[in-house]
Amino acid sequence: MSQQPNLLLSFLPMIAMVIVFYFLLIRPQQKKQKEVLAMRSNIAVNDDVVTIGGIRGKVLLVKEDYIVMESSATKTRLDVMKWGISSVESKKSKQEEL
């Protein structure tokens, strides 16, 4: 009779791959998603924002799920959903750079 390999030893490489994928792919993505959600929920009036389409503007009004922003020198007002904001640059961070 030939010896059969231990069942646990045969699944060990697969278990190790799942653990590696969790720490290298899934966990960092969840952390990044939490940061983005926090950034979008903390948008305030007078913050400078950039949309996912590349439009830059200043926040005039913040509602639950959208913002009203003013873009360009012609004072164009846009209603933008919060999920469409890619980055926020508040006035405080601008003053710290100076």
Describe the 3D structure.
This protein has one domain: SH3 type barrels. Helices cover 43% and strands 29% of the residues. The protein contains two helices and five strands, in the order αβββββα. It has a five-stranded antiparallel beta sheet with strand order 4-3-2-1-5.
Key structural traits:
5-stranded antiparallel beta sheet; 43% helix; cell membrane
List the helices and strands and how they pair.
Blueprint: H1 7-41, E1 48-51, E2 56-62, E3 66-71, E4 76-81, E5 85-89, H2 91-97
Antiparallel strand pairs: 1-2, 1-5, 2-3, 3-4
Structural class: alpha+beta
Helix and strand element order: HEEEEEH
Query: What's the gyration radius in Å?
Result: 23 Å
Total domain count: 1
User: How many runs of DSSP E, i.e. beta strands?
Assistant: 5
Query: If strands are numbered along the chain, what order do they take across the biggest sheet?
Result: 4-3-2-1-5
CATH fold category name: SH3 type barrels
Please give the CATH architecture: Roll
Q: What is the number of helical segments per DSSP (H or I, 4+ residues)?
A: 2
Tell me roughly what share of residues is in helical segments: 40-55%
Summarize the structure.
It is a single-pass membrane protein. It is built from 2 helices and 5 strands, in the order αβββββα.
